[in-house]
Design goal:
The chain is mainly alpha-helical and 364 residues long. It is built from twelve helices and two strands, in the order H-H-E-E-H-H-H-H-H-H-H-H-H-H. Mean pLDDT is 78; it is low at 142-153.
């Protein structure tokens, strides 16, 4: 196979693979989730395998069972404690949202306009408030209707139950055979290309592992810091604002911006004073200091190389093309493309096309 025909073959293979993923997205999704969980748990399994219990080494199966139990316990804690708390605060937000909107448009906005010397907006605030209240009620009714339809749909319930059983089973087997699968894929690579391709995959693994494992821990830590700080201030929506700010911190400064704005509005609405908004700013200042000086250097390091804009675009593009499966695959694809583009850039800068000097017009 010539070089050109090989390139066309690889391009056709990539297009065909993309079409196949698009067609099989609902089926692939639980397997993608399981692969992601196995990828996250494999380093801990490898570390446990290096331990020794008295004189006996820890087998792969025992290490997988330990990690699997830990992951199951984490999921159980989320289901037992986090989801009820989130549901309670979302219910509170839905109930108080029309009142908050009325205060924002009728009190906060006119006060801000008078302080900044801005001309009043030409709008009927009463009509706008009533329309927003009506829309909010319609959204709530639609959500309840969708939930009722899903709960009554036998096929949807069966699909959900199948995934509930399938994901843990597939995760366990992938964790147990992860190193064997990686070695099998490595043995399929042509021998002449194996060193270069293996080096690329190791670099992709470094970038992806640092970003996903490290950034997930940073997001969780920031969410806990923000939630605890806002809870100590007595903010009613402390949990939902703190955790959303932590999750959005996957994009630098986005979580802080959204969290500060939401927490300030909630604090002003709830306490009607100056002290609590100042304390809210203090909470987020402490969180940002911890992230910059402790969390990111310790948990993530400097191996990421993924620009925030690339992260946003990858997630949005993946969701648009492949739905939820595309969101799951967005970051691995972005990390892989980032490494490939960096290597292509190095090859281009070392090529004759880039380094060739312009001919002297005078023939000198």
């Amino acid at each position: 196979m010539t070089g050109d025909s090989r390139q066309w073959f690889l391009l056709a293979l990539a297009v065909g693979l993309g079409w196949l993923i698009f067609q099989l997205a609902p089926v692939i999704t639980p397997f993608a989730i399981s692969a992601g969980l196995a990828y996250l748990g494999d380093p801990l399994v490898d570390r446990l395998q290096r331990l020794r219990f008295f004189r006996w080494p820890v087998s792969r199966t025992v290490a997988v069972i330990i990690v699997f139990v830990l992951m199951s316990a984490a999921v159980g804690l989320i289901l037992l404690f986090v989801l009820p708390l989130a549901r309670e605060q979302i219910t509170y937000l839905v109930r108080r949202a029309p009142e908050m909107l009325e205060w924002l448009l009728g009190t906060a906005l006119p006060w801000l306009q008078s302080r900044l010397g801005l001309a009043p907006l030409e709008m009927d605030l009463q009509s706008l408030t009533e329309a927003a209240k009506s829309y909010w009620k319609d959204v709530g009714s639609a959500a309840l209707s969708v939930l009722g339809t899903v709960s009554r749909g036998g096929q949807a319930v069966l699909h959900w139950l199948m995934n509930l059983v399938l994901i843990p089973v597939v995760t366990f087997y992938l964790l147990r055979d992860w190193d064997r699968l990686v070695l099998g894929i490595q043995n399929l690579i042509p021998r002449q290309d194996e060193p270069a391709i293996s080096g690329l995959f190791r670099e992709i693994d470094d970038v992806l592992g640092a970003f996903i494992r490290g950034q997930l821990m940073v997001m969780l830590a920031l969410g806990l810091v923000y939630t605890l700080g806002l809870w100590l201030l007595g903010l009613d929506l402390a949990f939902i604002i703190g955790m959303v700010a932590g999750l959005l911190s996957i994009v630098p400064y986005l979580g802080t911006f959204v969290g500060v704005v939401a927490a300030l509005l909630a604090a002003i609405f709830q306490f009607q004073d100056v002290l609590h908004p100042v304390l809210v700013l203090g909470v987020f200042a402490v969180g940002q200091s911890l992230e910059g000086m402790v969390l990111t250097p310790l948990l993530v390091g400097d191996r990421i190389g993924l620009h925030p804009v690339a992260v946003i675009f990858a997630v949005l593009a993946g969701g648009q093309l492949f739905g939820f499966l595309g969101i799951l695959l967005a970051l691995p694809a972005a990390a892989s493309l980032n490494v490939l583009v960096r290597h292509l850039d190095q090859r281009y800068r070392a090529s004759d096309l880039y380094q060739k000097k312009l001919q002297d017009p005078g023939g000198a």
